[in-house]
Amino acid sequence: MSEFHQATAYHRDDLGGHLLDWAHQPHPFKRYRHRESLALTPPAWPSAALFDLERAGQEQAPAGRAEAAALTSILLLSAGITAQAGSGGEGQALRAPASAGALYPAELYFAACGVEGLGDGLYHFAPAGPGLHLLWPGPLAARAGALLGRPPRALTFFISAIFWRSLWKYRTRAWRYCLLDAGHMLANLELAAAAWSLAPVVGLDFPDASLGVFLGLPDQEEAPLIGVQAGCEPAQPGPAEPELPPLDLETLPLSARVGRDQVLLAARDLGRLDEPRRAPRWQAPEAPPEALVLERPPGGGPALAEAVWSRRSRRNFLGRGLSRQQATRLLSFALPADGPCLATALIAPGGEMEPGAWLYLPSARALARQEAGGRAEVARACLNQLWVGQAALALVLWADLARLEQAQGPRAYRHAMIAAGRAGQRLYLAATALGLGCCGVGAFYDRELAEAAGLPPRAQPLYLLACGPVKGGPQPG
Ligand SMILES: Cc1cc2nc3c(=O)[nH]c(=O)nc-3n(C[C@H](O)[C@H](O)[C@H](O)COP(=O)(O)O)c2cc1C
Questions:
Q1: Which of 47, 209, 335, 459 is deepest in the core (most CB within 10 A)?
Q2: Which of 99, 170, 316 to mutate to test the pocket of ligand 1 (most atoms within 8 A of CB)?
Protein backbone atom coordinates (compact mmCIF):
# COMPACT_ATOMS: atom_id res chain seq x y z
CA MET A 1 0.00 0.00 0.00
CA SER A 2 2.77 2.48 0.74
CA GLU A 3 4.11 1.04 -2.57
CA PHE A 4 0.86 1.98 -4.33
CA HIS A 5 1.09 5.49 -2.94
CA GLN A 6 4.72 5.76 -4.04
CA ALA A 7 4.00 4.27 -7.45
CA THR A 8 1.31 6.89 -8.06
CA ALA A 9 3.37 9.85 -6.80
CA TYR A 10 3.69 12.77 -9.20
CA HIS A 11 7.21 13.93 -10.07
CA ARG A 12 7.90 17.34 -11.58
CA ASP A 13 9.90 16.08 -14.55
CA ASP A 14 7.79 13.06 -15.22
CA LEU A 15 4.13 13.99 -15.15
CA GLY A 16 3.54 12.78 -18.69
CA GLY A 17 0.83 14.35 -20.84
CA HIS A 18 -2.54 12.63 -20.58
CA LEU A 19 -5.17 13.85 -22.97
CA LEU A 20 -8.72 13.37 -21.80
CA ASP A 21 -10.71 10.99 -23.97
CA TRP A 22 -13.88 13.06 -24.24
CA ALA A 23 -15.60 10.44 -26.39
CA HIS A 24 -15.54 8.09 -23.39
CA GLN A 25 -16.24 10.52 -20.60
CA PRO A 26 -17.99 8.49 -17.87
CA HIS A 27 -21.63 9.28 -17.14
CA PRO A 28 -21.91 10.94 -13.70
CA PHE A 29 -25.00 8.99 -12.54
CA LYS A 30 -25.69 5.29 -12.08
CA ARG A 31 -28.55 4.20 -14.33
CA TYR A 32 -30.19 0.82 -13.69
CA ARG A 33 -31.75 -0.82 -16.72
CA HIS A 34 -34.58 -2.53 -14.91
CA ARG A 35 -35.06 -0.69 -11.62
CA GLU A 36 -37.47 2.20 -11.71
CA SER A 37 -36.77 5.41 -9.86
CA LEU A 38 -38.96 6.01 -6.80
CA ALA A 39 -39.75 9.49 -5.52
CA LEU A 40 -38.23 10.62 -2.22
CA THR A 41 -40.40 11.62 0.71
CA PRO A 42 -40.13 15.44 0.98
CA PRO A 43 -37.26 16.24 3.36
CA ALA A 44 -37.41 17.56 6.90
CA TRP A 45 -34.25 19.52 7.75
CA PRO A 46 -32.43 19.05 11.05
CA SER A 47 -31.95 22.23 13.07
CA ALA A 48 -28.65 21.20 14.72
CA ALA A 49 -25.85 23.75 14.53
CA LEU A 50 -22.70 22.61 12.75
CA PHE A 51 -20.23 23.08 15.59
CA ASP A 52 -22.48 21.26 18.06
CA LEU A 53 -21.98 18.17 15.90
CA GLU A 54 -18.19 18.13 16.29
CA ARG A 55 -18.17 14.68 17.92
CA ALA A 56 -20.50 13.08 15.35
CA GLY A 57 -19.53 9.46 14.82
CA GLN A 58 -17.02 9.51 17.69
CA GLU A 59 -19.14 8.96 20.75
CA GLN A 60 -21.61 6.39 21.99
CA ALA A 61 -25.08 7.89 22.19
CA PRO A 62 -28.59 6.42 22.38
CA ALA A 63 -30.02 6.26 18.85
CA GLY A 64 -33.42 7.72 17.94
CA ARG A 65 -36.07 6.38 15.56
CA ALA A 66 -35.54 6.96 11.86
CA GLU A 67 -38.27 8.47 9.67
CA ALA A 68 -38.45 8.82 5.90
CA ALA A 69 -38.42 12.66 5.88
CA ALA A 70 -35.26 12.73 8.02
CA LEU A 71 -33.71 10.06 5.83
CA THR A 72 -34.32 12.17 2.72
CA SER A 73 -32.38 15.05 4.24
CA ILE A 74 -29.54 12.70 5.22
CA LEU A 75 -29.31 11.50 1.61
CA LEU A 76 -29.44 15.01 0.16
CA LEU A 77 -26.88 16.35 2.64
CA SER A 78 -24.56 13.39 1.95
CA ALA A 79 -24.73 13.13 -1.82
CA GLY A 80 -27.33 15.55 -3.20
CA ILE A 81 -26.89 18.13 -5.93
CA THR A 82 -26.33 21.53 -4.36
CA ALA A 83 -25.35 23.73 -7.33
CA GLN A 84 -25.02 23.84 -11.06
CA ALA A 85 -21.65 24.85 -12.59
CA GLY A 86 -21.47 26.34 -16.08
CA SER A 87 -24.52 27.38 -18.03
CA GLY A 88 -26.90 26.16 -20.72
CA GLY A 89 -26.82 22.51 -21.72
CA GLU A 90 -23.17 22.25 -20.68
CA GLY A 91 -23.91 22.81 -16.99
CA GLN A 92 -22.51 20.34 -14.48
CA ALA A 93 -24.22 19.27 -11.29
CA LEU A 94 -22.08 19.96 -8.22
CA ARG A 95 -22.82 17.99 -5.08
CA ALA A 96 -22.77 18.28 -1.33
CA PRO A 97 -19.31 16.72 -0.91
CA ALA A 98 -16.27 18.10 -2.73
CA SER A 99 -14.89 15.75 -5.37
CA ALA A 100 -11.55 15.55 -7.17
CA GLY A 101 -12.15 16.96 -10.65
CA ALA A 102 -15.92 16.99 -9.85
CA LEU A 103 -16.00 13.40 -11.17
CA TYR A 104 -18.03 11.94 -8.27
CA PRO A 105 -16.91 8.30 -8.15
CA ALA A 106 -18.74 7.73 -4.83
CA GLU A 107 -22.23 6.18 -4.77
CA LEU A 108 -24.58 5.84 -1.81
CA TYR A 109 -26.76 2.82 -0.86
CA PHE A 110 -28.71 1.99 2.27
CA ALA A 111 -30.70 -0.82 3.86
CA ALA A 112 -33.78 0.58 5.60
CA CYS A 113 -35.69 -1.48 8.16
CA GLY A 114 -38.54 -0.24 10.31
CA VAL A 115 -38.10 3.32 9.00
CA GLU A 116 -41.42 5.11 9.35
CA GLY A 117 -42.80 6.03 5.90
CA LEU A 118 -40.49 3.80 3.82
CA GLY A 119 -40.80 0.12 2.91
CA ASP A 120 -38.01 -2.16 4.13
CA GLY A 121 -35.34 -2.90 1.57
CA LEU A 122 -31.96 -2.12 0.10
CA TYR A 123 -31.94 1.11 -1.91
CA HIS A 124 -29.58 3.08 -4.14
CA PHE A 125 -29.74 6.87 -3.86
CA ALA A 126 -29.97 8.56 -7.27
CA PRO A 127 -29.01 12.22 -6.80
CA ALA A 128 -30.14 13.38 -10.25
CA GLY A 129 -33.85 12.63 -9.64
CA PRO A 130 -33.39 12.93 -6.80
CA GLY A 131 -34.87 9.55 -6.09
CA LEU A 132 -34.34 5.97 -5.00
CA HIS A 133 -33.78 2.68 -6.76
CA LEU A 134 -35.17 -0.24 -4.80
CA LEU A 135 -32.63 -3.06 -5.23
CA TRP A 136 -33.87 -5.77 -2.85
CA PRO A 137 -37.19 -5.46 -0.98
CA GLY A 138 -37.62 -6.84 2.53
CA PRO A 139 -36.08 -6.54 6.00
CA LEU A 140 -32.30 -6.69 5.48
CA ALA A 141 -31.02 -4.99 8.63
CA ALA A 142 -29.64 -8.21 10.15
CA ARG A 143 -27.81 -9.03 6.91
CA ALA A 144 -26.43 -5.49 6.57
CA GLY A 145 -25.36 -5.49 10.22
CA ALA A 146 -23.76 -8.94 9.96
CA LEU A 147 -21.65 -7.72 7.02
CA LEU A 148 -20.25 -5.06 9.33
CA GLY A 149 -19.95 -7.50 12.25
CA ARG A 150 -22.55 -5.58 14.26
CA PRO A 151 -26.11 -5.92 15.57
CA PRO A 152 -28.79 -4.63 13.18
CA ARG A 153 -29.81 -0.97 13.07
CA ALA A 154 -32.73 0.71 11.27
CA LEU A 155 -30.39 2.23 8.66
CA THR A 156 -27.19 0.82 7.24
CA PHE A 157 -25.57 3.06 4.63
CA PHE A 158 -22.86 1.94 2.26
CA ILE A 159 -20.56 4.22 0.26
CA SER A 160 -18.87 2.70 -2.79
CA ALA A 161 -16.67 4.05 -5.59
CA ILE A 162 -16.95 3.49 -9.34
CA PHE A 163 -13.35 3.44 -10.53
CA TRP A 164 -13.85 4.53 -14.15
CA ARG A 165 -15.33 7.89 -13.20
CA SER A 166 -12.02 8.93 -11.70
CA LEU A 167 -9.72 6.63 -13.67
CA TRP A 168 -10.77 8.37 -16.87
CA LYS A 169 -8.92 11.50 -15.78
CA TYR A 170 -6.43 10.47 -13.11
CA ARG A 171 -5.41 7.00 -14.32
CA THR A 172 -3.95 4.76 -11.61
CA ARG A 173 -3.80 7.62 -9.07
CA ALA A 174 -7.63 7.48 -9.21
CA TRP A 175 -7.71 4.96 -6.33
CA ARG A 176 -6.46 7.75 -4.06
CA TYR A 177 -9.32 9.99 -5.18
CA CYS A 178 -11.92 7.24 -4.84
CA LEU A 179 -10.92 6.89 -1.18
CA LEU A 180 -10.63 10.63 -0.51
CA ASP A 181 -13.98 11.32 -2.18
CA ALA A 182 -15.64 8.52 -0.17
CA GLY A 183 -14.23 10.14 2.99
CA HIS A 184 -15.75 13.47 1.96
CA MET A 185 -19.17 11.85 1.60
CA LEU A 186 -18.73 9.99 4.90
CA ALA A 187 -18.16 13.27 6.79
CA ASN A 188 -21.49 14.68 5.62
CA LEU A 189 -23.32 11.42 6.22
CA GLU A 190 -22.10 11.14 9.82
CA LEU A 191 -22.94 14.79 10.54
CA ALA A 192 -26.42 14.50 9.01
CA ALA A 193 -27.20 11.25 10.88
CA ALA A 194 -25.91 12.79 14.13
CA ALA A 195 -28.02 15.91 13.51
CA TRP A 196 -31.07 13.59 13.71
CA SER A 197 -29.68 11.89 16.85
CA LEU A 198 -29.30 8.60 14.99
CA ALA A 199 -25.89 7.86 16.57
CA PRO A 200 -23.93 6.88 13.45
CA VAL A 201 -21.22 4.20 13.71
CA VAL A 202 -18.71 3.69 10.92
CA GLY A 203 -17.19 0.38 9.73
CA LEU A 204 -14.55 -0.10 7.03
CA ASP A 205 -13.52 -3.69 7.85
CA PHE A 206 -16.10 -5.86 6.12
CA PRO A 207 -15.92 -8.90 3.82
CA ASP A 208 -15.48 -7.13 0.48
CA ALA A 209 -16.79 -9.78 -1.89
CA SER A 210 -19.92 -10.58 0.16
CA LEU A 211 -20.77 -6.91 0.58
CA GLY A 212 -20.22 -6.32 -3.15
CA VAL A 213 -22.71 -9.12 -3.93
CA PHE A 214 -25.22 -7.72 -1.43
CA LEU A 215 -25.04 -4.30 -3.13
CA GLY A 216 -25.09 -5.83 -6.62
CA LEU A 217 -21.76 -4.22 -7.61
CA PRO A 218 -19.75 -5.38 -10.64
CA ASP A 219 -16.55 -6.48 -8.90
CA GLN A 220 -14.11 -5.12 -11.49
CA GLU A 221 -15.80 -1.70 -11.67
CA GLU A 222 -17.10 -0.66 -8.27
CA ALA A 223 -15.99 -1.38 -4.71
CA PRO A 224 -17.77 -0.95 -1.38
CA LEU A 225 -15.63 1.27 0.84
CA ILE A 226 -17.58 2.37 3.91
CA GLY A 227 -20.51 1.19 6.04
CA VAL A 228 -22.39 3.48 8.45
CA GLN A 229 -25.10 2.23 10.79
CA ALA A 230 -27.64 4.63 12.27
CA GLY A 231 -30.90 4.62 14.20
CA CYS A 232 -32.20 2.20 16.80
CA GLU A 233 -32.39 -1.57 16.50
CA PRO A 234 -35.42 -2.61 14.41
CA ALA A 235 -38.06 -4.92 15.90
CA GLN A 236 -37.98 -7.21 12.83
CA PRO A 237 -34.49 -7.08 11.34
CA GLY A 238 -34.95 -10.04 8.99
CA PRO A 239 -32.63 -13.05 8.71
CA ALA A 240 -28.84 -12.70 8.80
CA GLU A 241 -28.59 -14.95 5.70
CA PRO A 242 -31.58 -13.98 3.52
CA GLU A 243 -32.35 -15.44 0.11
CA LEU A 244 -31.96 -12.43 -2.20
CA PRO A 245 -34.58 -12.38 -4.96
CA PRO A 246 -33.33 -12.89 -8.54
CA LEU A 247 -33.66 -9.24 -9.60
CA ASP A 248 -31.67 -7.80 -12.46
CA LEU A 249 -29.40 -5.01 -11.19
CA GLU A 250 -27.71 -4.41 -14.54
CA THR A 251 -26.75 -0.79 -15.21
CA LEU A 252 -26.12 1.17 -18.40
CA PRO A 253 -22.39 1.42 -19.18
CA LEU A 254 -20.78 4.71 -18.09
CA SER A 255 -19.39 5.22 -21.60
CA ALA A 256 -19.06 3.24 -24.84
CA ARG A 257 -15.76 1.89 -23.56
CA VAL A 258 -15.12 1.50 -19.84
CA GLY A 259 -11.44 1.45 -18.89
CA ARG A 260 -9.84 -0.82 -16.30
CA ASP A 261 -6.54 -0.51 -14.49
CA GLN A 262 -4.83 -3.60 -13.10
CA VAL A 263 -2.63 -1.68 -10.65
CA LEU A 264 -5.69 0.04 -9.22
CA LEU A 265 -7.50 -3.29 -8.90
CA ALA A 266 -4.48 -4.84 -7.19
CA ALA A 267 -4.38 -1.90 -4.72
CA ARG A 268 -8.08 -2.36 -4.08
CA ASP A 269 -7.49 -6.06 -3.38
CA LEU A 270 -4.75 -5.48 -0.81
CA GLY A 271 -6.09 -6.22 2.63
CA ARG A 272 -9.31 -7.75 1.30
CA LEU A 273 -11.26 -9.40 4.12
CA ASP A 274 -13.42 -12.54 4.16
CA GLU A 275 -14.97 -11.76 7.54
CA PRO A 276 -15.81 -8.52 9.32
CA ARG A 277 -13.00 -7.36 11.59
CA ARG A 278 -12.89 -5.11 14.63
CA ALA A 279 -11.97 -1.51 13.83
CA PRO A 280 -8.28 -0.84 14.38
CA ARG A 281 -7.18 1.43 17.23
CA TRP A 282 -4.92 4.33 16.35
CA GLN A 283 -2.27 5.73 18.60
CA ALA A 284 -2.47 9.48 18.96
CA PRO A 285 0.96 11.16 19.25
CA GLU A 286 1.52 12.88 22.58
CA ALA A 287 2.00 16.60 22.83
CA PRO A 288 5.51 17.69 23.88
CA PRO A 289 5.63 19.93 27.01
CA GLU A 290 6.42 23.03 24.96
CA ALA A 291 3.36 22.54 22.67
CA LEU A 292 0.95 25.44 22.27
CA VAL A 293 -2.36 24.29 23.77
CA LEU A 294 -5.43 25.77 22.09
CA GLU A 295 -8.61 26.55 24.00
CA ARG A 296 -11.78 24.48 23.48
CA PRO A 297 -13.75 26.27 20.76
CA PRO A 298 -17.40 27.18 21.34
CA GLY A 299 -20.25 25.19 19.73
CA GLY A 300 -23.05 26.80 17.72
CA GLY A 301 -22.55 28.15 14.20
CA PRO A 302 -25.00 27.90 11.32
CA ALA A 303 -27.27 24.88 10.86
CA LEU A 304 -25.54 21.90 9.25
CA ALA A 305 -27.84 22.11 6.21
CA GLU A 306 -26.95 25.77 5.65
CA ALA A 307 -23.22 25.01 5.75
CA VAL A 308 -23.58 22.02 3.38
CA TRP A 309 -25.72 23.98 0.94
CA SER A 310 -23.38 26.96 0.75
CA ARG A 311 -20.09 25.00 0.72
CA ARG A 312 -18.09 25.39 -2.49
CA SER A 313 -14.41 25.20 -3.42
CA ARG A 314 -13.02 28.73 -3.26
CA ARG A 315 -9.51 29.59 -4.32
CA ASN A 316 -9.40 33.41 -4.42
CA PHE A 317 -7.48 33.79 -1.17
CA LEU A 318 -6.68 37.29 0.06
CA GLY A 319 -3.33 36.57 1.67
CA ARG A 320 -4.71 37.54 5.10
CA GLY A 321 -4.17 35.51 8.29
CA LEU A 322 -6.50 33.78 10.74
CA SER A 323 -7.66 34.79 14.20
CA ARG A 324 -6.73 32.32 16.94
CA GLN A 325 -10.38 31.40 17.36
CA GLN A 326 -10.73 30.65 13.63
CA ALA A 327 -7.61 28.48 13.60
CA THR A 328 -8.74 26.59 16.69
CA ARG A 329 -12.25 26.10 15.33
CA LEU A 330 -11.00 24.82 11.97
CA LEU A 331 -8.48 22.34 13.35
CA SER A 332 -10.68 21.07 16.15
CA PHE A 333 -13.63 20.45 13.85
CA ALA A 334 -11.61 18.87 11.04
CA LEU A 335 -9.68 16.27 13.00
CA PRO A 336 -10.86 13.62 15.48
CA ALA A 337 -8.92 12.99 18.70
CA ASP A 338 -7.20 9.99 17.15
CA GLY A 339 -7.00 8.54 13.69
CA PRO A 340 -4.64 7.07 11.13
CA CYS A 341 -3.55 10.34 9.54
CA LEU A 342 -1.68 13.26 11.02
CA ALA A 343 -1.87 16.92 10.13
CA THR A 344 0.71 19.63 9.61
CA ALA A 345 -0.70 23.16 9.62
CA LEU A 346 1.21 25.78 7.65
CA ILE A 347 0.04 29.07 9.05
CA ALA A 348 0.49 32.34 7.17
CA PRO A 349 1.56 35.62 8.79
CA GLY A 350 -0.89 38.46 9.22
CA GLY A 351 -3.22 36.85 11.76
CA GLU A 352 -3.17 36.17 15.51
CA MET A 353 -1.34 32.85 15.18
CA GLU A 354 2.43 32.63 15.10
CA PRO A 355 3.19 31.82 11.46
CA GLY A 356 5.12 28.75 10.34
CA ALA A 357 4.66 25.00 10.30
CA TRP A 358 2.98 23.22 13.21
CA LEU A 359 2.15 19.59 13.86
CA TYR A 360 -1.46 19.48 15.10
CA LEU A 361 -2.03 17.08 18.01
CA PRO A 362 -5.80 16.63 18.15
CA SER A 363 -6.01 14.58 21.36
CA ALA A 364 -4.41 17.48 23.26
CA ARG A 365 -5.80 20.15 20.90
CA ALA A 366 -2.25 21.46 20.70
CA LEU A 367 0.31 22.59 18.14
CA ALA A 368 3.98 21.57 18.15
CA ARG A 369 6.57 23.48 16.14
CA GLN A 370 7.89 21.85 12.98
CA GLU A 371 10.66 22.89 10.61
CA ALA A 372 9.41 23.51 7.09
CA GLY A 373 10.03 25.43 3.91
CA GLY A 374 7.84 28.34 2.94
CA ARG A 375 4.24 28.38 1.80
CA ALA A 376 5.41 29.40 -1.67
CA GLU A 377 7.36 26.13 -1.89
CA VAL A 378 4.28 24.23 -0.79
CA ALA A 379 2.24 25.96 -3.50
CA ARG A 380 4.87 25.08 -6.15
CA ALA A 381 4.77 21.47 -4.92
CA CYS A 382 1.00 21.53 -5.58
CA LEU A 383 1.63 21.41 -9.32
CA ASN A 384 2.23 25.19 -9.23
CA GLN A 385 -1.29 25.96 -8.01
CA LEU A 386 0.06 29.23 -6.67
CA TRP A 387 -3.17 30.31 -4.96
CA VAL A 388 -2.33 27.72 -2.29
CA GLY A 389 0.47 30.07 -1.19
CA GLN A 390 -2.05 32.87 -0.58
CA ALA A 391 -4.17 30.81 1.84
CA ALA A 392 -4.02 31.59 5.57
CA LEU A 393 -3.80 27.87 6.35
CA ALA A 394 -2.46 24.98 4.29
CA LEU A 395 -3.31 21.76 6.08
CA VAL A 396 -1.19 18.82 4.95
CA LEU A 397 -2.66 15.43 5.90
CA TRP A 398 -0.03 12.70 5.99
CA ALA A 399 0.87 9.28 7.36
CA ASP A 400 3.83 6.98 7.78
CA LEU A 401 2.11 4.37 5.61
CA ALA A 402 4.73 1.66 6.07
CA ARG A 403 4.37 1.92 9.87
CA LEU A 404 0.58 1.86 9.66
CA GLU A 405 0.75 -1.21 7.48
CA GLN A 406 3.10 -2.95 9.90
CA ALA A 407 0.74 -2.28 12.79
CA GLN A 408 -2.65 -2.85 11.11
CA GLY A 409 -2.06 -4.64 7.80
CA PRO A 410 -2.58 -3.31 4.29
CA ARG A 411 -6.20 -2.27 4.85
CA ALA A 412 -4.81 0.61 6.90
CA TYR A 413 -4.30 2.48 3.62
CA ARG A 414 -8.05 2.74 3.11
CA HIS A 415 -8.46 3.92 6.67
CA ALA A 416 -5.81 6.62 6.25
CA MET A 417 -7.10 7.96 2.93
CA ILE A 418 -10.75 7.88 3.98
CA ALA A 419 -9.82 9.66 7.24
CA ALA A 420 -8.00 12.31 5.18
CA GLY A 421 -11.06 12.84 2.97
CA ARG A 422 -13.32 13.00 6.03
CA ALA A 423 -11.06 15.64 7.61
CA GLY A 424 -11.06 17.53 4.32
CA GLN A 425 -14.83 17.76 4.06
CA ARG A 426 -15.10 18.80 7.70
CA LEU A 427 -12.52 21.54 7.14
CA TYR A 428 -14.55 22.79 4.15
CA LEU A 429 -17.71 22.91 6.28
CA ALA A 430 -16.02 24.64 9.22
CA ALA A 431 -14.47 27.18 6.82
CA THR A 432 -17.86 27.81 5.20
CA ALA A 433 -19.46 28.34 8.62
CA LEU A 434 -16.74 30.89 9.50
CA GLY A 435 -17.13 32.78 6.19
CA LEU A 436 -13.75 31.52 4.95
CA GLY A 437 -12.84 29.84 1.67
CA CYS A 438 -11.43 26.34 1.33
CA CYS A 439 -10.22 24.06 -1.45
CA GLY A 440 -8.90 20.51 -1.46
CA VAL A 441 -5.69 19.76 -3.34
CA GLY A 442 -5.02 16.20 -4.42
CA ALA A 443 -2.63 17.16 -7.20
CA PHE A 444 0.89 17.54 -5.83
CA TYR A 445 4.44 16.39 -6.43
CA ASP A 446 4.54 14.04 -3.48
CA ARG A 447 8.21 14.19 -2.49
CA GLU A 448 8.42 17.96 -3.03
CA LEU A 449 5.38 18.49 -0.85
CA ALA A 450 6.75 16.25 1.91
CA GLU A 451 9.96 18.33 1.93
CA ALA A 452 8.26 21.72 1.67
CA ALA A 453 5.91 20.86 4.55
CA GLY A 454 8.77 19.47 6.67
CA LEU A 455 7.19 16.02 7.08
CA PRO A 456 9.25 13.33 8.89
CA PRO A 457 11.50 11.22 6.61
CA ARG A 458 9.13 8.24 6.13
CA ALA A 459 5.92 10.27 5.96
CA GLN A 460 3.86 10.43 2.79
CA PRO A 461 1.45 13.28 2.06
CA LEU A 462 -2.12 12.04 1.48
CA TYR A 463 -4.06 15.25 0.85
CA LEU A 464 -3.81 18.99 1.32
CA LEU A 465 -6.40 21.69 1.93
CA ALA A 466 -5.97 25.41 1.54
CA CYS A 467 -8.18 27.60 3.67
CA GLY A 468 -8.55 31.26 4.64
CA PRO A 469 -10.19 34.62 3.96
CA VAL A 470 -11.30 34.91 0.34
CA LYS A 471 -12.56 37.71 -1.88
CA GLY A 472 -16.27 38.15 -1.28
CA GLY A 473 -16.06 36.78 2.28
CA PRO A 474 -16.79 38.87 5.40
CA GLN A 475 -14.28 41.66 6.16
CA PRO A 476 -12.39 41.57 9.48
CA GLY A 477 -14.37 43.50 12.13
C1 LIG B 1 -9.80 14.75 -3.24
C2 LIG B 1 -9.93 16.10 -3.88
C3 LIG B 1 -8.87 16.65 -4.57
C4 LIG B 1 -8.99 17.93 -5.14
N5 LIG B 1 -7.91 18.48 -5.78
C6 LIG B 1 -8.00 19.72 -6.31
C7 LIG B 1 -6.85 20.33 -6.88
O8 LIG B 1 -5.76 19.76 -6.90
N9 LIG B 1 -7.00 21.58 -7.38
C10 LIG B 1 -8.19 22.26 -7.35
O11 LIG B 1 -8.26 23.40 -7.83
N12 LIG B 1 -9.32 21.69 -6.80
C13 LIG B 1 -9.23 20.45 -6.28
N14 LIG B 1 -10.33 19.88 -5.66
C15 LIG B 1 -11.62 20.61 -5.61
C16 LIG B 1 -12.60 20.10 -6.67
O17 LIG B 1 -12.20 20.58 -7.93
C18 LIG B 1 -14.03 20.52 -6.34
O19 LIG B 1 -14.42 19.88 -5.15
C20 LIG B 1 -15.01 20.15 -7.45
O21 LIG B 1 -14.76 20.91 -8.60
C22 LIG B 1 -16.45 20.35 -7.03
O23 LIG B 1 -16.69 21.69 -6.68
P24 LIG B 1 -17.21 22.11 -5.24
O25 LIG B 1 -16.14 21.69 -4.25
O26 LIG B 1 -17.37 23.60 -5.30
O27 LIG B 1 -18.48 21.40 -4.98
C28 LIG B 1 -10.22 18.63 -5.07
C29 LIG B 1 -11.29 18.06 -4.36
C30 LIG B 1 -11.16 16.82 -3.77
C31 LIG B 1 -12.30 16.24 -2.98
A1: 335
A2: 99
Structural domain containing residue 109: 2-13+21-84+95-269
Q: Are residues 341 and 447 in the same domain?
A: yes
CB distance 120 to 238 below 8 Å: yes
CA distance 276 to 243: 20
pLDDT, one tens digit per residue, over 235-278 is 999 999 998 877 789 999 999 899 999 999 999 999 999 999 99
Q: What is the pTM of this model?
A: 0.97
- Non-local (6+) Cβ contacts of 408 within 8 A are 280, 340, 415
Ligand 1 centroid – CA 176 distance (Å): 13
- Of the pLDDT bands very low, low, confident and very high (cuts 50, 70, 90), residue 13 is confident
C-beta separation of 419 from 183 below 8 A: yes
Q: Are residues 335 and 251 in the same domain?
A: no
Residue 88 Cα, ligand 1 centroid: separation in angstroms?
A: 22
Indicate if 299 and 212 belong to the same structural domain: no
Alpha carbon distance 97, 311 (integer Å):
8
**Total count of domains within the chain:** 2
Regarding whether 311 and 220 lie in a shared domain, the answer is no
Atom 7, ligand 1: residue with shortest CA distance: 441
Residue 41 forms part of a structural domain: yes
Q: 64 with 202, same domain?
A: yes
CATH code, domain with 398: 3.40.109.10
Q: Closest ligand 1 atom, CA of 312?
A: 26
Mean residue pLDDT of the chain comes to 94
Q: From ligand 1's centre to the CA of 463, what distance in Å?
A: 11
Q: Are residues 247 and 337 located together in one domain of the fold?
A: no
- CA 395 to ligand 1 center in whole angstroms: 15
For residue 60, what pLDDT is reported? Answer: 74
In 127-209 the beta strands, taken as DSSP E runs, fall at 131-137, 155-162, 201-203
Q: Hey, which of 441, 445, 463, 464 would you mutate to test ligand 1's pocket, going by the most ligand atoms within 8 Å of its Cβ?
A: 441
Mean pLDDT calculated for residue range 290-312: 96
Residue 235 and residue 129 share a domain: yes
- Which residues surround ligand 1 with Cβ inside 6 Å? 94, 98-102, 177, 180-181, 184, 312-313, 315, 385, 439-443
466 Cα–ligand 1 center, Å: 11
Distance CA 161, CA 143 (A): 21
Report the nearest atom of ligand 1 relative to the CA of 315: 11
Distance CA 14, CA 18 (A): 12
